[in-house]
């Protein structure tokens, strides 16, 4: 497996060297998202693979609270994290939050079922990131083999017009302290 990857990389490198006059090359260095950054334009999925939701379009021109969890139906996510946002949704929206979004590296059917179990309809949009593209773009992923491998770190953020205004990443990536609903400072 690694030989194939190496030979492909060498082939691409050789192609780039041969065509360097006609091809612009650059190195992308990933760094975790930070306050002030614009969100990456990534499609997430709501309810089914047919319903794409671009996160930049969703957050354009409004205040959005987004939180991410390592996995739907997991104990900490189901007993504490998601219920806290469900309980605080009406207050957040009354305080000017336009949308509340939960993201997980799961498929859209799992996220829809988890949302139905917790009565999120009209309160929280349950968005799936099946390949982890959004989480990878934010550089907030972690490897959790017992949950299937690549997952999201547990975090919350306040977004205004597609820019991160507040970011709370759990120190160990999975705990339940700074990313809880009652810890957000979304009010001005």
Description:
This protein starts with a helix and ends in a 19-residue tail after the last strand. With 188 residues, it is an alpha+beta fold. The strands form two sheets. A seven-stranded mixed beta sheet has the order 2-1-5-4-3-8-9. The longest helix is centred in the middle third of the chain and has 20 residues, at 75-94. It is globular, with a radius of gyration of 18 Å. 31% of the residues lie in helices and 24% in strands. It has helices at 2-18, 55-59, 75-94, 108-117, 133-138, and strands spanning 43-46, 52-54, 63-69, 99-104, 125-128, 141-144, 149-152, 155-160, 163-169. The model is unreliable at 1-29 (pLDDT under 50).
Key traits:
disordered N terminus; single chain; 24% strand; 188 residues; alpha+beta; two-stranded antiparallel ribbon; globular
Q: What is the tally of beta strands?
A: 9
The low-pLDDT segments are 1-29
Range of strand content: 15-25%
Helix fraction by DSSP (H/I, runs of at least 4): 25-40%
Q: What structural category arises from helix and sheet content?
A: alpha+beta
The side-by-side strand order for the widest beta sheet comes to: 2-1-5-4-3-8-9
Distance between the termini: 52 Å
Order of helices and strands: HEEHEHEHEHEEEE
Gyration radius, in Å: 18 Å
Annotation field: number of helices: 5
Overall mean confidence score, pLDDT: 83
For the sheet with most strands, the description reads: 7 strands, mixed
Shape: globular
